[in-house]
Amino acid sequence: MPEGPEIRRAADTLEAAIQGKPLTHAWFALPALQTHAAGLVGQRIARIETRGKALLTHFSGGLTLYSHNQLYGVWRVAAAGETPQTNRVLRVRLETADRAILLYSASDIALLTPEQLAQHPFLLRVGPDVLDMALTAEQVKARLLSARFRRRQFSGLLLDQAFLAGLGNYLRVEILWQCGLAPQHNAAQLTDEQLDLLAHTLLDIPRLSYQTRGVVDEHRHHGALFSFKVFHRAGEPCERCGGIIEKNTLSSRPFYGCPGCQR
Description:
Order of helices and strands: HEHHEEEEEEEHHHHHHEE
Number of helices: 9
Structural class: alpha+beta
Helix content: 25-40%
Shape: elongated
Strand content: 15-25%
Largest sheet: 4 strands, antiparallel
Strand order of the largest sheet: 1-6-7-5
C-alpha cells in the first residue's frame, strides 16, 4: 500500500493537472454521489489535501471529495475526453477543458460538506500528518511520551495512523534503523537523547522520501536520491556496522533490521 509520501506526490500530480481550472464534467459511479455531479460543473478544485493515506479534493463551492485508495485504488491523469484502457473499475472522473483526473478501484469515497468532513470517522481517528510542515519534532516527542503511546512497541506504533498519519512499513523500517533502535522498544524505555533523535527522524525520513524518492541522479549509486538502508536488503551487510540485515515479521508486516546495531 502506498504510504504518505506517495499519496502526497500523487496529489501534487493531480493538482498540477487540474487545480484552479473550471470543471467541464464530473462523473461518479456511486449512486449516492451522482446527484452532485451536475452541481460541480463550473466549480474549480481549490486544493487537494492529504491526511496520511486519505486524499481530500476541495471544491470551490465548499464540498470536499474524500477518497482512500486502500489496497487497490489509484488516481490517473488523462487528456480531456480520454479514457485509458485498463482492467480497473472507474469510480470518479473530474474533467476540465484540457485534462481529466480519474479514480479507479477505490471503494472508500464520499462527498462531504464542511460539517460532515469535520466529523468523518477516519479523519477523527488519524493523528497529525508527518508531511504537515507545521508539525514539529517537539510535538512528536510529546506524542511519543503521552499516556496513550508511551508503552506501545515501535513495531506496532509506527504502523498506527492514530499515532502519526502517513507512516507505513518501509518508513517504519528505515526510521528505526536510522535511530539504531530495535522494534521491541517503546518510548518509555528511551533516554531523552534517544527520544529527541527518534522525534526528529519520524519527520525527517518521510519528508526526505517525499522530496526525493523516485528522483534520479545519474551520478549517485543506484540512481535514486532516496535509497533504502535496510528495507528489502535481507542478507546484505549493514552499511553502519557491517552486520547482516535480517528479515522478520512484526505486526503482520515484513520487517528488516540489523541486530548488530539496532538495540
